[in-house]
Amino acid sequence: MSNGYWNKPAVSPASTGGFPGGYGFYQPTPTPLPTPVPTPFVAGASAGMPPQVPSGSFVTPAGGNVVTVPATEESYVENILRLNRGKMGTFYMTYENNREWNAKVFRGIIEAAGRDHIIISDPSTGMRYLLLTLNLDYVTFDGPINYEYTFNGQTITNTVPMTTNGR
């Protein structure tokens, strides 16, 4: 059989008993496993199970738990919509490459909001809509918007008066 290079026959190391230069196949030698050390019983923990860690946290090599979740929610659309759950809103959506409707408007009461979706219900029809935030352009509300975020260690809300520094 030819491999196309200089018309030499193709040779597999397996068919020659090893690699050129006298290197044979690797034969691992069994290594004894260390004797297991009994661990003390901890109430509520199951044997062989890792400790439960909150979402967003990690366990250090020493077994410590480091929590990296912010103390308050950050200012994202999903969090603002959650703060306004139960309010009527108008959602302006854009759907690219759609010949029937490129832009569509939905009006409904906010029931839930997640990282990538919004669930609203139309009170006049009872229809519920699952909208993707990927298509969301903006939202309007008829009344005030509940809003809060942390800035420079202070929680800013829609009820905190705006101040000026005179700068």
TrEMBL record:
Alphabetized UniProt keyword annotations: Capsid protein, Virion
UniProt protein name: Spore coat protein GerQ
Pfam family, one: Spore_GerQ
InterPro entries according to UniProt: Spore_coat_GerQ
Top-rank taxon, per record: Bacteria
Annotated organism of origin: Paenibacillus montanisoli
